[in-house]
Structure prediction request, 235 residues.
Amino acid sequence: MVARETTELSSTPAGTRLRGCNILKNGQDPEARPDNEYPDWLWELLDDDAQRKKLEADPEKKARKEWRKKNRERIKQANFLKSMR
Amino acid sequence: MAARSGPTRNILVKLIVGAGTASPSPPVGPALGSKGVKAMDFCKEFNARTAHLTPGIPISCVITIRPDRSFSFETKSPPTAFLIMRAAGIEKGAARYAVGDPPVGRISLKHVYEIAKIKQKDSQLSGVSLEAVARSVIATAKTVGVEVVR
Prediction:
């Protein structure tokens, strides 16, 4: 991630046409707005540490994720054993 | 989705059709014709409903066919993978994705934001926060082999 001299840290500075982001016939691809006009959570989406902290802050969600992971592993193992028979 | 046939049950058919370009020939024709639905009727209504969208853009739709052969359908937003690949300017996604493979395209978080806004208009996603939709868009980008950068 290269920090530029300007306050814009995004790879698409304000005014860039966001290709492919329009599905209306009479519309146009929207223009990128300056960084500060986007919600703060957007910039944290790629940051693993920030996401982990958010997950820790929500114990229900964290428990749900862990259960689902366990269940999926269990299903995969059961399927593997079945295929071996 | 496998069709569950039986005299009293509805049958669901999932299709991806280009907006405004539905026609009775494949893929629409046989898929609906075999369930007893007049493909022409569906096409007329589908094209009317998608007239305001960019022509040709693939639209997912789910058609519910009732036992008396009448049908209703719901259209959704285009597949996320399609929107991502279009934003990255690539035609096809990566053939396979492993941890070390170089990405086939690149989009920025601002693209993700706009794509998430489009997806959130789906009825199924209307209750989900925009942040969560954006997270799922990023996950889809990963499966397609497109890198997301700031």
Q: What stands out?
A: Residues 1-6 of chain B have pLDDT under 50 and may be disordered. The two ends of chain B are 37 Å apart (CA to CA).
